[in-house]
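In the previous chapter we treated chains in isolation. Here, by contrast, the input contains two separate entities that must be folded as one system, with a combined length of 568 residues.
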Amino acid sequence: MQVERDEFRRRRTIRSALVAAASTTVLLGGATALVVTSPGWERVRETYFSWDKAVESFPAVLDGLWLNIRVMAVCAVVIVALSLTIAVMRTIRGPVAFPLRLIGTVYVDVFRGLPLLLVLFLLGFGGPALNLSGLPRSALFWGCTALVLSYSAYVAEVFRAGIESVHPSQRLAGRSMGLSTSQTLRHVVLPQAWRRVLPPLMNDLVSLQKDSGLIAVLGVIDAIRAAQIETAVDFNYTPYVVAGVLFICLTIPMARATDWYARKQGFHGAGGMM
Amino acid sequence: MPTTKPLTAGLAGLAASIVLLTACGAPVDEEPTATDASSSEPAAPDCTADQLETYADGVLTIATDDPAYGPWFVDNDPSNGQGYESAVGFAVAEQLGFTAEQVEWVTAPFNAVVSPGEKKFDFDLNQVSITEKRRNAVDFSAGYYDVRQTVITTKGSAIDGATSLADLKDAKLGAQVGTTSYVAITDQIQSSEQAAPYDTNDQAVQALENGQIDGIVVDLPTAYYMTAAQLDAGVIVGQLPAASGDVEQFGAVLDKGSPLTTCVSQAVDALREDGTLDQLAEEWLAQQGAPELS
């Protein structure tokens, strides 16, 4: 009886695998056939998937990507520091801290509401126009400032959600052990909050990596801009595809690294620490 | 086995629908028409308004980008006939036998003009320089304007008063991205500083005002416009020497293999021969001497 059952289950497994394979083949094959039999395919292939053009434009695009990576790395550090400060400001209790909470709330409301491109233009072209002595005029500096200001508003909200998701009993337990408010925050609340918000933080980091290219509107050359310059030579759009592939190659390892780090940290979903 | 029926049926349905989809998705190729003029024929194709295969019947659809800049267009309105390219557009239309009422101006972003896919216009006038490499992607008419690249700056800047390309060696120069002006910075001037690309000329002007760049490279008519109207203390440094002897020209952009290319080219050539182009350039692109950089 049991042997028959096993045999039956094995057959079912094999069959569902076969069916899955067949349906995938039919679907992908159909989609591919649809694309490659379309009358414009030949021209699209030449324009977007030209191997020669890809090889030719690769060094320039890679050079641009290096700027993306540097901008992302520098901004990410500053953003974490600034947004954590804002998040803590917004979660401090007590009437005396009201101005801090107010400043934090206004900041988040303003910079979450402003489109990033608008902040870039306002700061990137308006900032240097102020002619402030002591501040650099470089497009890179002002572009990074705009990125930091915009992104910190988002990330501050992520951190605040993390901080507030830590159960009040944790804070009370810390205080009852004789830790001060700031010590409780540092040793009890923030470590737990940090672990919980790691995945959404990662999401924002990937988003930042892509948006770092937006500073190109101020006259610096990132991967997309480099691709655009390469494209203008002969109106062949392959460099854009090259840039896209490079960005994906950058993102996937970052995502895997986060998963690994989260597992190592013993990541449990919200409430798992209770 | 009764349980398999819905699944098999579903699969069959899926396959059938994909086949159908493929069938719908592959449009029938356009039938080749007799007027698909291969340019090897000496006989001129019939370039009259009623014979041309225009995008919209009985109307000549001309595209340009938005915003449309002076001195090529006036008041961001291509259809008013003012500005060099607007005037050229109407003159070409007239050559082909269209009245001014039969000319329709549409907006087409530069990328939409040069990427493959259906074009929603007959030709595009947007200061696009003709280069051999670009011919792989689009058709060009004959050139309707001879381009000279020019360096402009503001009074008292590092390159104000430069007289040779050597004086520009260490200058930080900007230009609109994807233009031949931008390429001129890297290829002709070979400045040691990274050339700064901007999305629009307006942003390059802003950066120059901010002192983020020393100068801008643009075509000569735009240089006159910028120094006169956009910059507070703009000066023209000078024109770049013509690159490698061949004259750079602006041409109308048409879809690759467009049936109109030959006719539009003939119209432009006719306008050049009868002096109309010179006259329009005189009217809209007033030329005062800009020194030549050695």
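Chain A is about 80% helix and 0% strand. The interface with chain B takes residues 19, 22-23, 26-27, 30-31, 33-34, 37-40, 43-44, 46-47, 125, 128-129, 137-139, 216-221, 225, 228-229, 231-237 of chain A (CB under 8 Å). Compare these points with the single-chain example from earlier in the chapter.
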